């Protein structure tokens, strides 16, 4: 199937554009093609978005929200079909794909409800017969750049708050997962979203992404992806004085203390390390374990990870799907080789899987290293695959220090039954998300999502915090005294 750009409410055919295949990572099957757009498609999309924004911003927010309710209902109707398509293009197992679509539904409903809130402030004026308030104003056109690992969830985390607040959107989805963007565009059309309110431009990051970041009419950029790309986006966006919201990489850890419920810790680690084949930004890639329980935990972890079935995620018996592409497979393998060379002790996996049906896809065996140095490359860099490094510590203080001593700060977790340790940890762990007695994944859409240090630049997706990204504060003073009153001068203080 040949996917087309969706601009100004139309599917744009442009034979002059080169195309690129979309591949199912589970078996190498070609699912379709996307156009490799050039700067001119971004210019057209920005023009249509700017035109549409003038009238969209004047639609009362509760009416804008009605479109989001309609979108939520359509997502619900199509949940199974969307989940199947998601698994085919991205590879995550079907149960997780359903969960991701549900995240989109939840976000649509949550942001739709914001249409009747979008709270500002009213405050007393220091002067008589004067009223003072602040309101959230839309920024204008929002440029969204999204990765492949949560192709529907991340798009909805960004698009829905932008829309309910009165912005319009130019969106560049990842090349790897354009079908989710196509399906969402069809739903927007069916929900009757006015033309130009959401525009989708397919193509390469360096061309389409750069054109979005540089375009003078796109005033807010919301990016999720790697820290390397995010830094480029921030630099270019900064040059053009844009608001830039970045959600980037992670090197997340589960801390297991000596008093932890090990059954629970085991489950939490398995789910957050090997779910989505380790390709969640919040995936657990380090296990920081107290020396007194290390041996037992690592033995049980190896036994449990051996049972994980690897294969095509459409089969409900499969627990670990493929990684996204050959380059990802090679990158994971590269880090595993470095780990071996640097003396980490490989307990399980460590290899590309090619037996039988796996031969045509991109599969990496669930991999566990132990005795990993906390400062080694394996324990410091984002691998984005099913690989965990076990690091031994002797105290809570040391565990927290090891957790924090990486360049990222997205998610962390502690397993302990001691309330004092738990509260100390939640205060000192330097990450945007902290879990207690759960793995590093599982964020809910109504709290802020994002991280510290190399993971972000202070903004957050999700929750109320997302509204801060897509709005400007406007302060309004209404003087009904009938005379000129001068603040700070006529208040007799
Ligand atoms: P990339 O940084 O490679 O790509 C992200 C997006 O940016 C893609 O759409 C890509 O386009 C585009 N892009 C590439 N180059 C540029 C450029 N020069 N200018 C503008 N846009 C560009 O990340 P991945 O897609 O590989 O996603 C994985 C990464 O995302 C991981 O590091 C992960 O941790 C992070 N992530 C962070 C999350 C968070 O909330 N903190 C959540 C999910 C993922 P193209 O289609 O060409 O690749």
Secondary structure elements and pairings:
Layout: E1 5-7, E2 10-12, E3 19-23, E4 30-35, H1 39-56, H2 61-77, H3 79-90, H4 94-114, E5 121-124, E6 130-138, E7 141-145, H5 153-164, E8 168-172, H6 178-190, E9 198-200, H7 205-214, E10 218-224, H8 227-239, E11 243-247, E12 252-256, H9 262-274, E13 284-290, H10 291-306, H11 326-341, E14 345-348, E15 352-353, E16 363-364, E17 367-370, H12 377-380, E18 387-393, H13 396-404, E19 408-409, E20 411-415, H14 419-428, E21 433-436, E22 452-453, H15 465-470, E23 471-479
Parallel strand pairs: 7-8, 7-10, 8-9, 10-11, 12-13, 12-20, 13-18, 17-18, 20-21
Antiparallel strand pairs: 1-2, 3-4, 5-6, 6-23, 14-17, 15-16, 19-22
Helix pairs in contact: 1-7, 2-4, 2-6, 3-4, 3-6, 4-5, 9-10
The structure holds NADPH dihydro-nicotinamide-adenine-dinucleotide phosphate (NDP).
NADPH dihydro-nicotinamide-adenine-dinucleotide phosphate is lined by residues 145-150, 172, 174-175, 204-206, 209-210, 213, 224-226, 229, 232-233, 247-250, 281, 382, 384, 410, 451, 455.
Describe this structure in words.
- By secondary structure, the chain is an alpha/beta fold.
- The chain has 15 helices and 23 strands.
- The radius of gyration is 24 Å and the shape is globular.
- The model has no long low-confidence stretch (mean pLDDT 97).
- It binds NADPH dihydro-nicotinamide-adenine-dinucleotide phosphate.
- Residues 145-150, 172, 174-175, 204-206, 209-210, 213, 224-226, 229, 232-233, 247-250, 281, 382, 384, 410, 451, 455 line the site of NADPH dihydro-nicotinamide-adenine-dinucleotide phosphate.
